[in-house]
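Posting this for the archive.
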Amino acid sequence: MEAPTPPSTTLPPPFIYTQPSPTLLTQGAEALLYTTHFLTPTQPTILKYRPPKPYRHPTLDKRLTRHRILSEARTLVKCRREGVSVPAVLALDAEGSGNGEGKGGGWMMMEWIEGRTVRETLQIGGKRWKGRGDGIERWEEGVIGLMGKIGNAVGRLHEVGVVHGDLTTSNMMLRPLKDEDLVNGQVMTNGDPTKHQDQDLVSALDGEIVLIDFGLAAQSLQDEDKAVDLYVLERAFGSTHPEAEEGFQEVLRAYGESYKGAKVVLKRLEDVRMRGRKRSMLG
């Protein structure tokens, strides 16, 4: 896999002076994601930087950047306060005041989450266990358990009045339960961190679901918004993990039992599905 192409922009102070320099993880249409550190070199963090957009009017660009950074930060803080597993917000500059040239842009620094994404875990595990008989039952049981945890995590998010807006398995991390069980990201087994990769993957399914990337999130108590959130996740499962699509029923089962009012959302989901099918038929 090739490394992301370096962006045609520079980070605002103080990050241009950070040593070692922030490393680009991914580049989207609106933001750049870097790995860096906070306060000490031993505390890894994620830096989300929204560079100024030259195609927008400068005043409009600053307003949009400020609104989006503050909105995401407030949502994350609310979720943390209510006990939802999301990254902690460590620092931010929504005004672009750190940019000495006055070109705007803004950034937010968040907690680094150890582990893999749910998407990566399912894809790697699916390839490794495909066609094998030994241990496949344990893997499948672990996947079903994972589906239940996803349903509970989304249910908890909706219970506190937040819809994610982009629920996919790429926006869910599986954080290992105990950091001391890991050596360079792998599970220790009999003192050898590299010998039992299968054990590593199966054990990863026992991790904690952490929801990430709240750039499109909103605070809403509407059943319709929550049902659309679930519909987006369901479609993502169908396209990204067709082999695990049947297990999505476990996601919905766990969601339905996660909070009062969840079953009403599931009924609304049926209406959203129907509208989605009609749009597909009509093109």
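The longest strand covers residues 40-50. The helical segments are 58-81, 118-129, 136-159, 197-204, 223-240, 248-256, 262-282.
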